[in-house]
Design goal:
This protein is of the alpha/beta class. It contains 8 helices and 15 strands.
């Protein structure tokens, strides 16, 4: 019978704000925050509320927010205020709230300025096979969150992780955000999560993007944000090492990925429910 246990290469995280590990089955850290910088006020509001909630529940939390969305379907889609302005906003929010930051990079020239602000660097799913990008991001020496391409098998991620290891960075997290199931639909393979974790690295489940309906509106992706909680509960029960959740005060007005975002007001009850599942999981040693 499959029994969840520590992975071969747990990833430690140390900052002035917190210390924890992925891959030891101790706690379930989360990446949570808005999809993209819309304006400083919204970003700060979400960060402050998430800090309050996760502190009260003793859940390790890293603020997630993108400075750019380079893989939009339409040239008219919102991409953010620009890298320099967005990174300055994220730096100020980090300072005010006292939190750590995950954000993604799309080109090698973005790695250096992003590494000055971000504590964890993310490689988007569509770009996970871009060798130069993965290697350059790994050289920054920070934990690397590698999203599995929607077109890749779980076992394929070992080669991607080895690209980071080739420059001395073993602080790798593997992330599942769904797999293409024909046109306009993604599904999650929970057996695949186990297989990917068996590669030796902690595994994160992106519950929000997994509910995406690619290209559903013709100019952008739709989604089933109402099902994010279902995937989160299933992921915790299966024993993933962390969750990725995009959050917005009002998803209906979000400028990007609103259909898959969790309403900010729903985060506290959701995390309380997930904590109960996690505690049961640990109690019975599943």
């Amino acid at each position: 019978m499959y029994k969840f246990s520590s992975v071969q290469k747990p990833v430690s995280f140390h900052s002035p704000n917190q210390t924890f590990e992925w891959g030891t089955c101790d706690r379930f850290p989360i990446f949570a925050g808005p999809d993209i910088v819309e304006d400083e006020g919204m970003v700060l509001e979400v960060a402050q509320e998430l800090k309050k909630i996760t502190t009260s529940l003793n859940i390790p939390w890293v603020f997630k927010c993108s400075f750019d969305k380079a893989n939009r379907q339409s040239v008219d889609s919102f991409r953010g205020p620009g890298m320099e302005k967005a990174l300055n906003i994220l730096a100020r929010v980090k300072s005010k709230v006292g939190c750590d930051l995950l954000t993604d990079v799309h080109e090698t020239i973005q790695v250096a300025p992003v590494a000055e602000v971000a504590d964890i660097i993310q490689i988007p799913a569509f770009l996970c096979r871009q060798t130069d990008l993965v290697v350059e991001a790994a050289k920054a020496g920070k934990p690397l969150h590698l999203k599995k391409g929607q077109f890749m098998a779980p076992g394929d991620m070992l080669s991607i992780a080895k690209k980071a290891a080739s420059v001395g960075n073993e602080k790798v997290l593997l992330c599942d955000r769904g797999t293409f199931f024909g046109y306009g639909r993604l599904v999650n393979d929970f057996l695949g999560l186990v297989e990917m974790r068996a590669l030796g690295y902690p595994v994160i489940l992106d519950c929000t993007h997994s509910t995406q309906l690619p290209g559903a509106t013709g100019k952008s992706s739709g989604g089933r944000g109402d099902l994010v909680g279902v995937l989160a509960k299933a992921g915790i029960a299966a024993g993933v090492d962390g969750l990725f959740l995009e959050v917005h005060p009002d998803p209906k007005t979000a400028l990007c990925d609103g259909p898959t975002s969790v309403p900010l007001a729903e985060m506290e009850p959701m995390l309380k429910h997930l904590s109960a599942i996690w505690n049961t999981h640990k109690e019975f040693g599943l």
